[in-house]
Amino acid sequence: MGPPFKTAGARYAVLTSKHHDGFALWDTKLSPWNAKDASPAGRDLIGPYCAALRHEGLKVGLYFSHLDWAHPDYPTILPPGASEKRDADPKYKNIYSYPQGAENPEAWKRFLTFHRGQLRELGERFHPDLFWFDGDWERSPSSGV
């Protein structure tokens, strides 16, 4: 008998590869904030997950958060209209989501390079059948994401 979720009729499973806190469950080369370098696991956790699912004939899904509160270049661009609201609306005082000083488009470009690099790592290394993106993305399409 296979895993309970397969027995129940599941055809795929999705694992959170990286959530909003920025901690990666694989040994990403782009950040030391990962399961190999910064946890008692001391190793990649995505590879065994993918192998186990494929062994059971299940599709592999990886959740990846666009938000990354641990990356220093993440809170660098405000969404449209936010600069007018920053002083009046307390939600714009979130240091993890919104810049508290001047906007920094160059830092945002660095973050996007990092973000795309991690997605490329996951895709090229683990070949997931699907990526699952979630969260309330506080960026606009014009900000590059």
Could you explain the architecture of this structure?
By secondary structure, this protein is of the alpha/beta class. 28% of the residues lie in helices and 11% in strands. It has 4 helices and 3 strands; from the N terminus they run H-E-H-E-H-H-E. It has helices at residues 4-7, 46-55, 82-85, 105-126, and strands at residues 12-18, 59-64, 130-132. A 3-stranded parallel beta sheet has the order 1-2-3. The N and C termini lie far apart (43 Å). The mean pLDDT is 87.
Question: Count the helices. How many?
Answer: 4
**How many β strands by DSSP?**
3
State the share of residues found in helices, binned by percent.
25-40%
The separation of the N and C termini measures 43 Å
The helix-and-strand class reads alpha/beta
General shape: elongated
Concise description?
With 145 residues, the protein is an alpha/beta fold.
Task: Using brief descriptors, characterize the structure shown.
3-stranded parallel sheet; 4 helices; 145 residues; alpha/beta
SSE blueprint:
Elements: H1 4-7, E1 12-18, H2 46-55, E2 59-64, H3 82-85, H4 105-126, E3 130-132
Parallel strand pairs: 1-2, 2-3
